[in-house]
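INTERNAL AUDIT FORM
Audit reference: QA-55
Scope: verify that the stored structure record matches its stored sequence.
Auditor: D.O.
Record contents follow.
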Amino acid sequence: MNKTSKRLFKWVGVGSLAMFFSITVCCSAQTETVAKCESGKDYDLSLPGKVKLDLIWIGPGTFVMGTPKDESGRNNDETQHQVTLSKGYWMGKYEVIQPQWKAVMGSDPSHWQGEDLPVEQVSWYEAMKFCEKLTMIEKAAGRLPEGYVYTLPTEAQWEYACRAGTTGAYNVDGATLNELGWHGDESQDKTHAVGQKKPNACGLYDMHGNVWEWCLDWYGDYPEDPVTDPVGKTSGSGRVDRGGSWGHYAGLCRSGDRNDAGPGMKAGHVGFRLALAPAQSAE
């Protein structure tokens, strides 16, 4: 899909804070497949067995994370604050699907089996093990950008990529949730093949619904002041997961909704999306 980099300039008020800032809406105008990741270009990753995994470049930028107090379904933990992501990164075009998981891990734990279905029934620990094994493979092959690792996205990276310049409850202005993701009101109580709904402006699919997506961070309160490259709390009891799922109502599928679960938890509505990002500590 051809995409051109576009930036929006918006006046945003956050409590007493108001500022002009730019939002990177799209990622890359490049369409060629490259054998090694290059900043600013989408990348077709080849997993063992020649299984493909599409990665979308997300450029650095500044945005307002969290939700306005009048957003329907809002929770008290969604305090708006300015976030700057100083370095670009890659996000999976789709949630990790079962053949991709099997290519790296060798087996498939999913309850619902299918070649285009997201992997589920994986804990945070197992998702991180997938990322660590893939990092080792790609580093040995000389295809890993210096200072970058395969990982789960931070919560800020996840929301920035999900919003793609939007500020409303869902990530395509004017679209309904039914157009964007599989949720509890129309999913038939199961996962669905990735990529069937509308993508956002960066070309990411299923950021709303289908399966919850693990993030790197421990869950904790948001700051009120502006932050750069946040990684969440240094410890906690729950790891963040975002995006809602096939079994949850619309309010839990919003761009700004937050959830957390114990890192050992496994469920048929929880999966993950791969990131290739600057190395961060997951302690």
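Auditor finding: record pair retrieved intact. The first helix runs from residue 98 to 105.
Action required: none
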